[in-house]
Write a structure and sequence with these properties.
It contains 13 helices and 15 strands. With 412 residues, the chain is α/β, with parallel strands linked by helices. Helix 4 links the parallel strand 4 and strand 5.
């Protein structure tokens, strides 16, 4: 076992398992005879829990482990004799090469599948590494479409990618803007300069003119970025109707606070695509003035569904931030558990086949049944949110909406 890799099973110690089994044997009148326990089914949970993406990675891990705890408490994988799922935890350290090395370690540890690793750049490396081991890799987020267009048969992405998210976001923006009388005609794009942000900026520059919005300027920044003053001043000088950011949590919060401090207030609003904090309840509550009215097209849960409400309450009871990283990894673990139930045997090949044939539909997300086509879940879709009075509300699609959109935003 590597220094960075840990195992978490059902939460039972060996002593507790032995005592429990002995007690059951005594109850059956067979003292000294222990009922054989099925072997744990090992799943690698790989996220960047240190480095620049540590917050996001920790949120991902929490979501996966919450689902795992529920599954084990409900009797484990019943088709495998009630076998428990054992999480083998690994840290990508926010670096693609480390993520790939951790895949090799997880493979040596005997995991049946890997879930993670959140970031697109890391996912490009970890899915390639997993292919060497014929190891099924369920990608939780990782929006770069190259992750699933390279023909890797063991790669499955649960959430929607760039293409679908951008198309959805532009359709929603066009509808919102049309309903508001075409309030937005110009935009600044602000993006992190990695695979995620650069890919999103490229698509936006290609597509925004088609819905009547001129891109005045595209501004990139590294992650981490320590100062957004210069970017804020450029936006003030350009005076666009819209700001469209695509970046990670820390940079998004710093950017939003800098815009507020510099009194930069776009006429129509801020419309993020996969904004790192734009759909984050903690951001909305901690920085209400900077956060109010920010819109986002992002991964989000279905607030109208009872299962989702139960999930949200569990998260609140634990004192955790309610974020899409939690939501997606909670959902991914449920999809993996379903694949383990249906797999003909506890092997990597059987789990790969079970994922490929998935029709799992009991989601907290606003998704249809899971259907992987060339590795992409065709049942996945994003949602549009807006921060209103300190809460993250769904504003689109209408069937999942919890509030009406405020667009253009109030001025003054």
């Amino acid at each position: 076992m590597s220094r960075r890799t840990m195992r978490i099973g059902s939460g039972l110690t060996r002593r507790n398992v032995v005592l429990g089994a002995a007690g059951a044997a005594a109850t059956l009148g067979m003292p000294g005879i222990l009922t054989a326990q099925p072997a744990n089914l090992k799943i690698g949970i790989l996220h960047p829990v240190t480095g620049g993406l540590a917050y996001e990675g920790e949120q991902c891990r929490k979501g996966a482990l919450l689902a795992l705890e529920e599954i084990n408490a409900a009797g484990g994988i019943k088709s495998k004799g009630g076998a428990k799922i054992e999480a083998v935890l690994a840290d990508a350290q926010s670096k693609p090469d480390v993520g790939a090395a951790e895949v090799d370690r997880l493979a040596e540890a005997g995991v049946l599948a890997i879930q993670g690793p959140f970031a697109s750049g890391i996912a490009l490396a970890t899915t390639q590494a997993a292919a060497k081991h014929n190891l099924p890799h369920l990608v939780d987020v990782g929006v770069v479409d190259q992750i699933v267009t390279r023909g890797l048969p063991n790669t499955f992405r649960f959430a929607p990618g760039f293409g679908k998210i951008t198309g959805f976001a532009l359709d929603a923006l066009q509808k919102i803007n049309t309903d508001a009388g075409g309030a937005a005609k110009t935009a600044f794009i602000v993006h992190e300069d990695g695979a995620f942000g650069s890919g999103m900026a490229k698509l936006l520059n290609e597509k925004l003119p088609g819905i009547g919005i001129q891109v005045m300027q595209t501004l990139s920044h590294p992650s981490p970025q320590r100062d957004f003053t210069n970017i804020a001043l450029q936006i003030r000088q350009g005076n666009p109707d819209l700001i469209i950011p695509s970046n990670y949590k820390n940079e998004f919060i710093l950017m939003a606070r800098t815009l507020q401090q510099q009194r930069v207030r776009p006429k129509a609003g801020i419309y993020a695509l996969l904004g790192g904090a734009a759909s984050n309840v903690a951001f909305a509550k901690q920085y209400p003035q900077a956060a109010e009215y920010i819109m986002d097209c992002n991964h989000w849960y279905n607030p109208t569904k009872e299962l989702s409400k139960v999930f949200a309450k569990k998260v609140a009871d634990k004192g955790w931030d309610l974020t899409y990283e939690l939501m997606l990894n909670y959902s991914c673990m449920r999809v993996l558990a379903d694949a383990l139930e249906r797999a003909s045997e506890p092997s990597r090949a059987a789990v790969t086949a079970a994922l490929a044939s998935s029709t799992y539909g009991d989601h907290i997300m606003p998704y249809g049944p899971t259907k992987f086509v060339n590795g992409q879940n065709e049942g996945a879709q994003p949602a549009n949110t807006q921060i209103l009075k300190g809460s993250v509300e769904v504003i689109y699609p209408a069937e999942f909406a919890s509030a009406k959109v405020a667009f253009p935003i109030p001025q003054g």
